[in-house]
C-alpha cells in the first residue's frame, strides 16, 4: 500500500516538473517573440524617423537653393542691345569727327561705305580713298584711308559697335618712317536718318549721367555739412 502511494507521488512530481518546464519554455518563447516584435517596431519607427528627417533636410536644401537662385536672378541687370550685320552698312553715309594726338580741334568729314563689284570701298569727303570691313561675330568695324595709294602711309578708323546710329573708336596709323600706333580718337553718326529715331549719342548720355552723379554727390556733401 505504501509502495503504491509512493509511485503515485513520484508520478505526480514528474508531471508537476514537466508542466513547470513547459510553462517556463512558453514564457521564454513569448518574451522572445515580444522582444523581437518590439525590435521590429523600434526599427520601423527609427527607419520612418530617418526617412522623414531626410525628406525635411532635402526640402530645406531645395528651398535654400531656390532662394539662392532667386537672389542670383535679382543681381542680374538686363540691358537691350542689337546685333548688327554687314548689310546694315551697305551704302551708308557717316559724319565723322576725329581728334588727332596733340590736337585740340575736332576735324570733321563724311565717309560713305560702298559695295562695288564685290569690293568694300570707303569714300571719304576729303578726297581720301580706302576700304572697310565689318566682322559680325565681334561687331568690329574698320575703315581705312590711304595717302597716295598707301605710299605716304595709312590710317584706320576702327572700333567695336553697339549702336545702329552711332559709332566710335580709335585711329591707328603708320607711315614710311613710323610704325603703327594709336594716333587719335573718333566718333561718327549715321546720316540720312530721322534724328528723333536715332536719339541721343551714347557719349552724350555718359556725360549726362556723370553730371547727375556729381550733382548728387555735391548735394549729399552739402547736407552732411
Describe this structure in words.
- There is one protein chain.
- With 225 residues, the chain is of the alpha+beta class.
- It is 45% helix and 31% strand.
- It is built from three helices and eight strands; from the N terminus they run H-E-E-E-E-E-E-E-E-H-H.
- The chain has an eight-stranded antiparallel barrel.
- A hairpin with a 5-residue loop joins strand 6 and strand 7.
- The longest helix is centred in the N-terminal third of the chain and has 74 residues.
- The protein is globular, with a radius of gyration of 47 Å.
How far the N terminus sits from the C terminus, by CA atoms, comes to 131 Å
- Note poorly predicted spans: 1-55
**Average pLDDT metric:** 73
Assembly state of the chains shown: single chain
Give helix and strand order, one letter per element, not per position: HEEEEEEEEHH
- Class of secondary structure makeup: alpha+beta
Summarize the structure.
The chain has 225 residues and is an alpha+beta fold.
List keywords for this structure.
225 residues, alpha+beta, 3 helices, 8 strands
